Amino acid sequence: MPLQLHRVSSDAEFNDLVQCVCESYAAPVNRLWRLFRHDPSPAGFIELRDRLIREFRADSNACWLKVVDTEIGDKVVGAALWNTYTENPYSTSKYQPVDAEWWPEVLVYLVVHPEHRRRGIGSQLINWGVKEADRLNLETYIEATDLGKLTYEACGFVYAGTNYLESAKRNASPEWRSLERDMQTPIHVYRMWRPAGGKWVEGETQFPWKED
Question: What's the rounded Cα separation, in Å, for the pair 182 and 43?
């Protein structure tokens, strides 16, 4: 099989991985990525790569995956970051306690290079996390864009609502208005949830949070 999935273990792997992430989020433009992580300059790329390495090394719950195509020199054609928790990560904190929802397994990033979509790469990366969740009997949560929603549903995730990032405010400055037009706000993502074991029974299975 030309497509092979690997766990990322060394810092040296991040250069090609982050290159794939940036190119994937550029086509089509992922506006959340652009808002929080985007700096297209060479210096920005290095800063992003090194920051993701630091975050990865500091979090024992994080697992970066990559899919490579062995027929084109092990090019990274897809990647994902899964965080898996067997205990509440917010149960203790040096900061003032607040009520916060948490999920045992969270898909933080998932990208497929635009030149290699429709090859099952996204499903391969998702199913790794699904199998890990089933092995540990954990529920799973993700926030999907329009591009990935159908793939997540095909892997057993259930649509649970839509989140919106709004930018409207009174007496906004011309600079703010320019940024709104540039970012095309509001930005939306779909909340997607998969119960432990993956079995959803319509009318019986309940989401683990209170509905508005």
Answer: 22
